[in-house]
């Protein structure tokens, strides 16, 4: 029974692309980087809270769903070309640089096409515009729950460390993060 409880079924994939005014299809079809992520342990606590509180809403006593993507520059001393692997106990970024609400959330079907009805697959798209998140990016994660709009706040859902992606004021960065529940 314990083994069944410890199996994670939620998984995620991330697509990153630098460019101007990119569409979802452009990011998916020609990403600059495509990587898998780690769902962190505390995500289970957040899912239990969402189940317990009922309808997810930012108003009243309900707990917000997944609402932001945060990116960071990693811990001092990291080799930014080869940062350490994620661990399941991560709750914040080591050095958060920027946090944004999603540009869009989209249900997708089993063929990964946008769906007008609820499915178990959600695409979260975030645009970091010219003035946002400029620096050597090596870490990121999705955040939900109370305080998720605040730097280093909310509950971390997943984690990804990756070789440096340098974002400058001359570029936009679009990140599409797909979660399969």
Q: Strand content of the residues, in percent?
A: 35-45%
Q: CA-to-CA gap between the ends? A: 20 Å
Helix content estimate: 10-25%
Number of domains: 1
| Overall residue-averaged pLDDT value | 88
Structural class: mainly beta
Q: Which assembly state applies to the chains in this document?
A: single chain
- What is the number of helices? 3
Along the chain, the helix and strand elements come as: HEHEEHEEEEEEEE
Shape: globular
Low-confidence stretches: none
The main pleated sheet reads as: 6 strands, antiparallel
List how many beta strands DSSP finds: 11
C-alpha-based Rg, rounded: 16 Å
What does this structure look like?
It is a single chain. This protein is mainly beta and 181 residues long. The chain has one domain (11-180). 13% of the residues lie in helices and 38% in strands. The chain has 3 helices and 11 strands, in the order αβαββαββββββββ. It has helices at residues 2-6, 24-29, 42-53; strands spanning 11-18, 33-36, 38-39, 66-72, 96-101, 104-107, 121-128, 135-144, 155-156, 158-167, 173-180. The strands form 2 sheets. Strands 3, 4, 5, 8, 9 and 10 form a 6-stranded antiparallel sheet that branches. The mean pLDDT is 88.
Compact overview of the structure:
The chain is mainly beta and 181 residues long.
Keywords:
single chain, 181 residues, mainly beta, six-stranded antiparallel sheet, five-stranded antiparallel sheet, 13% helix
